[in-house]
Amino acid sequence: MAGNESYRIVVGVDGSEQSRAAMDWAVEEAKARGGEVLAITAWHFPYVTDALGQAWDYQVFQTDAQSILDEELARVRGRGVQISGRIVQGSAASVLVEASRDADFVAVGSRGHGGFAGLLLGSVSTQAVHHAHCPVLVFRESSADQPGRGTDTAD
User: Fold this and answer.
1) Is the pTM of this model over 0.90?
2) In three state form, how does the secondary structure of the chain look?
3) How many CA atoms lie within 13 A of 64 on its CB side?
4) How many domains does the chain have?
5) In this predicted model, what pLDDT tens digit does every residue of 106-142 receive, in sequence order?
6) In which order are the strands placed within the sheet that holds 105-109?
7) For residue 151, is it within any domain?
8) Residue 109 domain flag
């Protein structure tokens, strides 16, 4: 990371379990390295309008995004690491790629659809991996959370 002496980890926050896992890792990693965490929640207007053609109220999106970020910041405060948050209007992928310019690491969940669908959709982690200016760690759903695979031998 050029021009900044502090180790910074950027985390994409959308309210999903994977996003929380990314935040937990980032906090522990920043603590171990004496660094800081920047939590980012991105939001954007949908590309469609409702059946009546009414425009979306941007304040609703901004408020929902702020609630998601505030909840996550409250969950991880007091862990001995400097943590700041930012709400950014734009696609989650482009926002995280831009933030990666000033980061040593980006941590994201593999799937969005957390507390507010549309903040970090499935392709976001892929875009971050391919376009970020620093390493990216993607947190996937744990195998314990996935349905079992194999042969059912129950009688």
Assistant:
1) no
2) CCCCCCCEEEEECCCCHHHHHHHHHHHHHHHHHCCEEEEEEEECCCCCCCCCCCCCCHHHHHHHHHHHHHHHHHHHCCCCCEEEEEEEECCHHHHHHHHHHHCCEEEEECCCCCCCCCCCCCHHHHHHHHHCCCCEEEECCCHHHCCCCCCCCCC
3) 18
4) 1
5) 999 986 544 444 444 458 888 888 889 999 999 987 6
6) 82-89, 36-43, 8-12, 105-109, 136-139
7) no
8) yes
